[in-house]
Amino acid sequence: MIDIDKFKAINDTYGHPTGDKVIKAVTSTVSSELGEGTIFGRVGGEEFALLCNAETSEEVIALIEQIRLDVEKI
């Protein structure tokens, strides 16, 4: 599961159109890191699910850390 930190505050402060832009930016950023066979989708609100075909827990940790770093730059 992936959750956008402080998303409610973004919506409350800047409005839903800005919140929608944040969701699209996060979706685009995460999608750019995913390999073939990985499933990524929005569960609801600011929550997303990621199902990857990594072979080791180290690969999963590396992927999630890269996603976190990329999203942090938005």
TrEMBL record:
EC assignment: 2.7.7.65
Lineage: superkingdom: Bacteria
Enzyme class: transferase
Catalysis: reaction(s): 2 GTP = 3',3'-c-di-GMP + 2 diphosphate
GO-annotated molecular function: diguanylate cyclase activity
PANTHER family: DIGUANYLATE CYCLASE DGCM-RELATED, REGULATORY COMPONENTS OF SENSORY TRANSDUCTION SYSTEM
All copies of domain GGDEF, residue ranges: 1-74
Source species of the chain: Solemya elarraichensis gill symbiont
Protein name: diguanylate cyclase
A Pfam family assignment: GGDEF
